[in-house]
Amino acid sequence: MKRRWRKIAIALLAFILLASLCSCDLLNGGNTNNNDEIRAPKPEFKVALDNYGLLKAKRSEFEGSITISIYGKVNDRTGKPNTYSTTQRFDLTRIQNDGKIYVDGNVYNQDSSYNMESLLGSIKSALSEINKLPRQTLDTITSIIGYLDGTRSANVLLGYDSSHSSYNLKGTLKGGKQSDTLYYATNNEYIVNELLHNNIFSNIKFNDYLMFSTFVDFSGNSGWINSDEASSLFDNAKGLCNYQMSANTEKIYNYVIGLVEEYISGLDIEKYGNDIKTYTDCVNIIKGWISIGESNISASVNKDNLPVSMLTTTTININIDINELEEVLNKIFTDEKLVNDIIKKLEVTTALLLGTSSINMSIGLSLSESFSYDNQSTSLDTVDADLFIDAKEEKAGRVSYIVRDDIEEQEQEQEQEQDN
């Protein structure tokens, strides 16, 4: 059980990391009269984000929602497709100060339509009847459905200390009446070692992304931003620069697909030769299912050229052809009977509940972030000190993943955890 929760916690951490990724000095050069009638032009929003990245003490309050909508047959009365929807909520408080980073995150279901709950229940029931489905795959899908239908939620506390490059994760994962607590630690040395051990060549440091806000490039010549509808001037009365930008959907699409393709290209060809071909073939099919809808970014910047708030909204449209899905599953599982069972169950479910032969859905993202910089907001004095302990120290109740000299001791420790 704990092993499964640990995988969920790592996914959440990735999701937090994953999940996670995403200046007005010009006033000094302008002339103003007593009525502040002459206003300076605002800079690119990128200037404020660059300034934010350089700060050693800062706080971010992040509120996000993901609304998944699945569309069924058209309603004769309304002329619109019946919609099955669920909204997931995630909240993050992030503080960086004195070489430490603290993250407090929550993931939970905000709202689900009745028909969505029925659909998820049918999918879970159908999958449980497929005997040859790998247990790990079934557990992962069941866990995901649990978050979507509101029977599961999570709270995680993460701390990072640059003095010893260690991460500490405490979590509470709830599933129905059951609640499990987690306490793990690791460091950058172990992460890099694990990547190299698996022939994955990457210099990534997760701590670089713990305070990360957006992957959008706001440079004027980058092509990411189509337009800015807000005033081009600094508002002296409010002490703010405002931005109302529309993003280039093609850039977003290419960025997301590019991340996946970059990961695949970083795999060692000798160890992952067959997998690389499988992954590449699957991605080439899957990316044809996806398109990016309208994407907008609203933001404001204060007189110190630092971001005050940022709101990002976008829609991802997904249209899955069942025949192409069968082709993808055959590449992943290489078990024709298993794939046939999955597809048959899926076809029955979609025909019965959706009234369609394909899966049409959208994912609506709303990401709202506010920033603060005062001493009280950025203080870590009241934060759990256990979140900043060196991963190499002995700590009761904590499982540490570190590079050890005694490999046998490490393997025994991991086996013991799995048995629990």
Write up what this structure looks like.
With 420 residues, this protein is of the alpha+beta class. The protein has ten helices and 13 strands. Strands 1, 2, 3, 4, 5, 6, 7, 8, 9, 10, 11, 12 and 13 form a 13-stranded mixed sheet that branches. A hairpin with a 2-residue loop joins strand 5 (166-175) and strand 6. Helix 6 (249-265) runs antiparallel to helix 7. It is globular. The N and C termini lie close together (7 Å). The relative contact order is 0.17.
How would you summarize the topology of this molecule?
Elements: H1 2-17, H2 45-54, E1 58-74, E2 81-97, E3 100-112, H3 114-128, H4 135-149, E4 152-161, E5 166-175, E6 178-187, H5 188-197, E7 225-228, E8 240-247, H6 249-265, H7 269-286, E9 290-292, E10 296-302, E11 307-321, H8 322-333, H9 336-354, E12 358-372, E13 399-401, H10 407-419
Parallel strand pairs: 6-13
Antiparallel strand pairs: 1-2, 1-12, 2-3, 3-4, 4-5, 5-6, 7-8, 8-10, 9-11, 10-11, 11-12
Helix pairs in contact: 3-4, 3-9, 6-7, 7-8, 8-9
Helix and strand pattern: HHEEEHHEEEHEEHHEEEHHEEH
* General form: globular
Biggest β-sheet strands, sense, barrel? 13 strands, mixed
Helix content: 25-40%
Helix count equals 10
CA-based gyration radius:
24 Å
Residue runs with pLDDT of under 50 for 5 or more positions: 7-37
The overall pLDDT average reads 84
**Alpha-beta content class:** alpha+beta
N- to C-terminal distance: 7 Å
Tell me how many strands there are.
Answer: 13
Question: β content, as a range?
Answer: 25-35%
